[in-house]
Amino acid sequence: MSQAPRTKGERTRARVLDSATELFSRSGYNSVSLREIAAHAGLTHAGLLHHFPGKEQLLLEVLSRRDEVDAASLFPGLLGSDPAPALAAAGPCAAERLNRLVAVVGRNSRTPGLVALYAKLSAEASEPGHPARVYFVKRYRLLRAEIGALLGELFESAEPPVTADPDAVAQQLLALMDGLQTQWLLEPAAVPMEARVWEFLGNHGLHRP
Q1: Mean pLDDT over residues 79-102, rounded?
Q2: Residue 45 CB neighbour total at 10 angstroms
């Protein structure tokens, strides 16, 4: 997890990122200006530009900050440049990594602002030329590779071994998680996201520990 900001500049950058996250979550990237973010963070427009030269860079830092929190315990390769799965690195066993992955769904139910941010921006990023398009394409590519490798390891070690294609199941799992988050934003009480993910995994022989 990232260290808490210590210098005045680091604290200011963190405040700007917090404000951008809140405003992007509420209104989407396209509807929010740098001046609005600066005012929300208690800065002048020029003061914000001292730390972030443009809205595109600010958006990408907002997105990557959340990934940094998850990557160390789930998939170290998520933040690297090599799309090959990083499961060979030392770390928790496959079953524990799966448990942590599903726990992220539970955590998301306690952070509706971030869920809304990703839902809005991933939809906006489908437009050619959107500044977050490359980010989301790379993110999904890495997640499919990492989760597919994780499921392949678990399927192979299961008794009896699971014959499903782990890459296909990984893609289905990501689609399920994204769809559940959208439904949860609309009607939280009707969508137990974590439970539904475990039910899906249970259909493939993987159960909650």
Answers
A1: 68
A2: 13
**Contact between 181 and 108 (Cβ < 8 Å):** yes
Query: How high is the pLDDT of residue 59?
Result: 87
3-6 contact pairs (CB < 8 A, 24+): none
The per-residue pLDDT for 1 is 46
Q: Which of 142, 134, 143 is nearest to 60 (CA)?
A: 134
Question: How large is the average pLDDT for residues 32-51?
Answer: 96
Q: Name the nearest CA neighbour of 2 among 13, 48, 88.
A: 13
Alpha helices, H only, the chain: 8-27, 34-41, 45-51, 55-71, 94-108, 112-124, 133-157, 166-186, 193-202
- pLDDT at position 88 is 46
The single residue listed with the structure tokens 């899906």 is: 200
Q: Which H helix or E strand runs over 5?
A: none
Nearest to 150 by CA among 196, 81, 201, 203: 201
Give the orientation angle of helix 166-186 with respect to helix 94-108, to 10 degrees: 20
CA angle 144, 146, 152 (to 5 degrees): 95
